[in-house]
Amino acid sequence: QVQLVESGGGLAQPGGSLRLSCAASGSIFTINAMGWYRQAPDKQRELVATITSGDTTRYADSVKGRFTISRDNAKNTVYLQMNSLKPEDTAVYYCDAYLRDMNSRQLRHYWGQGTQVTVSS
Description:
11 strands; 121 residues; mainly beta; seven-stranded mixed β-sheet; single chain; four-stranded antiparallel β-sheet
């Protein structure tokens, strides 16, 4: 019943910025971790950034220093601020989350549908 709704993707110029948002909604749950992955054409899906319930963050080397992941607990939303964008950042970006159902206590993994980010002049 949980769904992850992504927004903020689009077209940006090299050196520009975009902010992606992912809101988790539906069943009653607690957040174990949320994050972002991306997949470019003919490439494997790769981790971009993650953030845990304890606010521990993790970044891919390719984006460290340029991207920032953050979370708004009240809104069950994770953000990815992308600065100094490069053409190599062009990919479909997927939100993911590990959520624990408060009734069943089960930990489950969810994926968003993905949002396209294109960096081009």
